[in-house]
Input
Amino acid sequence: MPDPNGFLRYERQLPKRRPVPVRIMDWKEVYPPAGEELIRDQATRCMDCGIPFCHDGCPLGNRIPDWNDLVRTQQWPAAADALHATNNFPEFTGRLCPAPCEAACVLGIGGSAGGGPVTIKQVEVEIANHAFGAGLVPQPAPASSGKSVAIVGSGPAGLAAAQQLARAGHAVTVYERDDRIGGLLRYGIPDFKIEKHVIDTRLAQMSAEGVEFQTGVDVGADITADDLRERYDAVLLAAGALAGRDTPETPGRHLKGVHLAMEHLVPANRIVAGLQDTTPIDAHGKHVVIIGGGDTGADCLGVAHRQGAASITQLDQYPLPPEERTGVKDPWPTWPLILRNYAAHEEGGDRVFGVAVQEFVGDTDGNLTAVRIAEVSVQRVDGVRTVVVTPGTERELRADLVLLAIGFDGTEDQPLLTQFGLRRNRRNVLDADQGWQTGAPGVFVAGDMHKGASLIVWAIAEGRAAAAAIHSYLGAAGELPAPVRSDSQPLSA
Output
């Protein structure tokens, strides 16, 4: 039974971030591990509502009140069991998910005046930290099914499906074209948000459970669709939506110094990992303009700070949103349109709202020198989103480096799709039936490759659902297994 007065006794409180002057000198995570007393107090705020709207807010259906109360009573192993029952990788989501569950928390109805929602995300990551500290427990299948599955892509969707299927007794091989497993988790997200040893620890558990990882394999070239059909009983496509959105129509896009965000983030992450010494896109000493106000833009901002940029300006074509939910366009418990301040914004830089780049300006040698921006409004004309420029508002910003962080344009058009006879739809992703199967028999799809660029919790949810569909397709008996007790024998050090 939860503490009925917990939310009255404790205010919402997050652990303090590492000091800005310290953290911008390294690449370690912004948040240090939180103290048990703080997390226990925050979990105590959970009221275990009669209707837990947080369940609906979470695509995974995490049993949030259950593990909040287990944390309150300091039953950490049981809390880890309850969390892992619906989420394969809480150490990822606790660090990276924007927490739609918190937006749906009953304590958030009144905004900050009502005390604010439970710090669900932070409680989740501390449960995961405790599980890591105790040693992740391999859960190998008791017997082999005799069936095999190939998974193309090692992001959260592919990894979640791989773990579920391996625990059901299927032989699972995950193919990744990069040199290390993890997809965007590995090279697309900076270490100050998730240090890569966190990924490696989970991968060690999966390897002990029988999942085979093949890196440096470009499926469609090194291995063809026919090869996969011959070797495996089913195939899951989970290669993400990595085609970066561009602005080829903007004058000056060809200038040296204008890059897609991932062209900046990936080599920076590889340097941190010790895999290369330099990057062709370094913000050191440069005046940086980041176009896009979302997660990827904030990642570029934090990286540019650590590289020693001379100045950084982040542009957003939408107007400055309110700091709290208005309740008109986005009433509780829907996802609110509010100003989202990331840790990187605390570290410096300017943010300009309601503007769009009209031209990239360069010198006679083809080098970027400035961006010409104008104030804009985003309107819908006949159902089509249109950016309308306000006349007479143009001005220039100095810029040596521009990073385009304006989203992704679907999954890449690749030979494997043609080999399977598949085509991308109008959103440049793959369609599937209700059983997650594409138009090619025995070939399934999940994650961003199916949904489009989305949240990590959606990727894990789709991976789990696709795994269940594949399990059924293979004619295997029984449901996918539930996790065993987390206090069983852990991996050896």
